[in-house]
Amino acid sequence: MKELNLAILGLGTVGSGVVKIIEENHQQIKDTMNKDLNIKKILVRDVNKSRPISTARYELTDNIEDIIEDDTIDIVIEVMGNVSPTVDWLKQLIQNGKHVITANKDLLAIHLKELEDLAEQQGVALKFEASVAGGIPIVNAINNGLNANNISKFMGIFNGTSNFILSKMTRDRAPFDEALTEAQELGFAESDPTDDVEGIDAARKVVITSYLSFNQVINLKDVTCRGISDVSIGDIQAAEAFDFKIKLIGKGTYANGKVTSSVEPTLIHNTHQLAAVEDEYNAIYVIGDAVGETMFYGKGAGSLATGSAVVSDLLNVALLFESKLHTLPPHFELKTEETKEMIESDAPVTLKEKESFYIVLQNANQDVEQLEKSLKQDLPFHKSLKLVNRDEQTVAALVVGIDEAPGNILSTKGYEIEKIYPVEGV
Ligand SMILES: NC(=O)c1ccc[n+]([C@@H]2O[C@H](COP(=O)([O-])OP(=O)(O)OC[C@H]3O[C@@H](n4cnc5c(N)ncnc54)[C@H](OP(=O)(O)O)[C@@H]3O)[C@@H](O)[C@H]2O)c1
């Protein structure tokens, strides 16, 4: 029986999960692949550090050249993180004819297309299932399961840390700082939580998911990105009064020939499936023209959940390896000649469908009824408007089915806007 030699870069949370899954299922993997899978080398920073798994049978190295230059290694799993020097190492590995599997969303949000093109040139596979929503097989679902569809929209909870914090704020009325401290104590948040709570981690996943869904490269800086640190208990209560929950939603839409992408606190109606996604869980909702609405739910992080996605890539690469089918065909392209022209034009994006917004306004001692009357007159055509007192100084308004984004219009008319969040599921 032939051997398939594997190297793993990184033996932290995800790396240990990958090794554990491979060890526990060694015989099944061997039977499925008809090859003996051999973990030949593992790259770490510190070869003497004590590890949560036994490493006695593996060759640990702190020198990447030991792996790049080893012609017997067929597949490399990168679970070490960071953009630099990792991206240069991945390029060298691909150039040396090795298939690469990575969980590294930080790196892919910038270099995915470049690495994919290089892998195609070299005739090797580049797989990254674990980079979006950890254990949820969303990459494979969009690339393969939904490849008979034109995808017009996806939206989802891409970050477990912020979802845990918002769930805690909603359930226990715990303020943001207290909920964050509990997330850190339970290991759901890093000691520096900036990327998670400010939406940056989710934005990276939105970049990758937009590329998969719409076949278009978007830049991280083009994702409108707002985190949850300004969500207050007052907002959560106002949202509840309107029958909504607040979630940090990453979204990509393809409308008027343009991709629009964002990560923002969003009001989700309680009847929408995303409203029921609590704590550290992730969920992604995708709309395809043939299939309609779909939703994928599960753990977005963790040693074994993320390891599951990495090992799934490993099996796919190993199985496709012999048949030379390294890249399955992507789903249908959404771009027609007409939409390509629109993508290249600088015309401003207008709201295609009627949209809905949650608006917090300073209430300069007016009563709510008076404010409602003036808003009804001042807002462009809208289907419905509801108001509740948010606190002593502010009023929260829910505007449903409006023709134009309300921010500029209200500002020019002298309203003092504290915040505007999008609304979904109405
Ligand atoms: N954690 C999750 O649940 C999760 C979920 C989805 C995706 N991811 C992605 O998976 C990747 C790994 O995450 P993780 O949580 O497993 O990280 P981690 O626990 O910090 O582990 C990183 C590992 O990489 C090694 N490493 C880091 N820099 C290195 C360098 N320059 N040279 C050699 N070895 C180096 C470290 O070696 P030492 O042990 O010797 O320090 C460590 O073993 C990241 O890209 C992350 O974004 C993680």
From TrEMBL:
Q: In which pathway does it act?
A: Amino-acid biosynthesis; L-methionine biosynthesis via de novo pathway; L-homoserine from L-aspartate: step 3/3; Amino-acid biosynthesis; L-threonine biosynthesis; L-threonine from L-aspartate: step 3/5
Q: Where is the Homoserine dehydrogenase C-terminal domain?
A: 354-426
Residue positions annotated to bind NADPH are K105
Give every Aspartate/homoserine dehydrogenase NAD-binding domain span: 10-129
Q: Which reaction does it catalyse?
A: L-homoserine + NADP(+) = L-aspartate 4-semialdehyde + NADPH + H(+)
Pfam families annotated for this entry? Homoserine_dh, HSD_C, NAD_binding_3
Broad class of enzyme this protein falls into: oxidoreductase
Annotated binding of L-homoserine, by residue: E190
Under what name is this protein listed?
Answer: Homoserine dehydrogenase
